[in-house]
Amino acid sequence: MTLVRRATAELLGTAFLVAAVVGSGIAAQRLSPGDTGLQLLENSIATGAVLVALILALQPVSASFNPVVTLVELALKRVTTTDALVLVAAQVAGGALGSVVANLMFDLDAVGISTHHRRGEGPLIGEVVATVGLVVVVFGSLRSARIETVAIAVGGYIAAAYWFTSSTSFANPAVTLARTLTDTFAGIAPSSVPVFVLMQLIGGALGAGLVLLLHPESHPEIQEA
Q1: Per-residue pLDDT of the chain (225 residues; tens, 9 = 90+)
Q2: Which stretches are transmembrane (predicted)?
Q3: Domain count for the chain
Q4: DSSP characters for 103-138?
Q5: Within a 10 A sphere around the Cβ of 185, how many other Cβ atoms?
Q6: Range of 15's domain?
């Protein structure tokens, strides 16, 4: 399978994921003004559902949509360094595209820099927890013989993590960067991004350690179509 195909799948998948996160956030704000809890419910359902669909559709090619997951794959020797760099670049580009498209779909400026500051120890701890859990769920699910297991597990986990983590579970550097480009419900101010991404990387490293502890046997590469 060519790297171009895999990078295209990562770009497309991350773009649709971010478009769903941002777009459903905008729709939620407009449909349920003044009710933050309902807005979050609408946002989380849409995000979880689109993850299931995108992973099912793109997993035969490539369906990480997340630099942390790709870096863990690199650590587990599932991808080469060159491949990882290309895939992460595609994820970041796809995320930015998804945010722009979501803004345009709802008649907003293509780029609106977010002013939603996300600070405090609680949300930062939440990002570590969210990312640890995501890595464990992804690489644990990959051991199943049924291809749909990963999609259902990841979609369900992210939908739940919107609620049980104080950060609403960004757990993805590419998505975090993309969400700086929309000054809406799902946005995050650029000044909040560096520490959020740092917490995600820490969570990814801890998650990788747990994967190796729980599944010490070899981690064969995913079968390619």
Answers
A1: 699 999 999 999 999 999 999 999 999 999 999 999 999 999 999 999 999 999 999 999 999 999 999 999 999 999 999 999 999 999 999 999 999 999 999 999 999 999 999 989 999 999 999 999 999 999 999 988 787 899 999 999 999 999 999 999 999 999 999 999 999 999 999 999 999 999 999 999 999 999 999 988 755 554 333
A2: 51-72, 84-104, 124-142, 149-165, 185-214
A3: 1
A4: HHHTT--S---------SHHHHHHHHHHHHHHHHHH
A5: 21
A6: 3-214
Q: And the tokens for 81? A: 């360094």
Specify the CATH number for the domain of residue 203.
1.20.1080.10
Does residue 225 belong to any structural domain of this protein?
Answer: no
Which residue type occupies 66?
N
Amino acid at 194: P
pTM of the shown model: 0.93
Helices 193-214 and 67-75: angle between axes, nearest 10 degrees: 40
Calculate ∠ Cα 122-188-91, nearest 5°.
105
CA dihedral over 209, 215, 219, 224, signed as positive or negative: negative
Amino acid occupying residue 173: P
- Give how far Cα 5 sits from Cα of 8, 92, 132, Å: 5, 16, 28
